[in-house]
Amino acid sequence: MKKVLVFITDGFADWEASYVTAELNKTGTGYEVQTIAIDKDPKISMGGLKVLPDYSLQESSPNLELAMLIIPGGTGWREEKNHQVKKLVDYCIGKDIPIAAICDATTFLGEYGYLDHHKHTGNSLAYLKEGAPHYRGDNNYINEQSISDGCLITANGSGALEFSRNILSKLDVLKSEELREWYGLFKNGFIKS
Fold first, then answer.
1. Is 152 helix (H, G, I), strand (E, B) or coil?
2. How far, in Å, are 91, 112, 120 from residue 139 at the CA level?
3. What span, in angstroms and rounded, lies between the C-alpha atoms of 112 and 34?
4. Counts for the chain of helices (H) and strands (E), in that order
5. At 148, which helix (H) or strand (E)?
6. 3 state SS for 42-102
7. What average pLDDT does range 163-168 have in this prediction?
8. Residues 20, 99, 100, 103: which is the catalytic one?
9. In which band, very low, low, confident or very high, does the pLDDT at 60 lie, cut at 50, 70 and 90?
10. What are phi and psi of 43, to 5 degrees?
């Protein structure tokens, strides 16, 4: 089973990765979703869910058969200690392992230059520039819910479904029509308004 790691912090936005993790964790996908944090202490999401990380950054092994790193947003990105994940992001980039970041996690990527040479999105261009003073990716910013460019997937905080769709496509979990149907169901519901 290939692992998809979700980096969690205290205050992580639990809903931003919930659509995609539910799909990835289904039997037969070939993927297993696990969590990683700066340490193994329980993390409490914005919604009050207490999650015990499977791995800590200190003990994570680069020998994991890692298929993707998903980084949800949330209030934890305001704390410098969570920026320790940069080491794992660098590892993923060096190995061409896809990284998917949403909401304030895109601001983190912007601060460290990861967005400078990739098409990307975030909560807004102004928000990225304010929250990431070292961000220099203005010319690659696209005002969309979610963007996939090479090994990088980004989304704004209201783009969880589009973010999930891009991840499922990148990992080849759902294909064309099946992916369109999945997205349509969750975007529009069983009953059309």
1. strand
2. 26, 16, 10
3. 25
4. 6, 9
5. strand 146-149
6. CEECCCCCEECCCEECCCCCCCCCEEEEEECCEHHHHCHHHHHHHHHHHHHHHCCCCEEEE
7. 98
8. 103
9. low
10. -110, 140
Q: Is 151 a catalytic residue?
A: no
- Residue given tokens 């999401």 in the structure block: 45
Instruction: Please state the separation of Cα 134 from the chain's center in Å.
Output: 21
* pLDDT of res. 58: 85
At 99, the amino acid letter reads I
- The amino acid sitting at 140 is N
Q: Please report the pLDDT score of residue 132 as a whole number.
A: 97
The pTM for the full model equals 0.96
Give residue for tokens 């993390």.
43
3-class secondary structure, 149: strand
The DSSP bridge partners found for residue 23 are: none
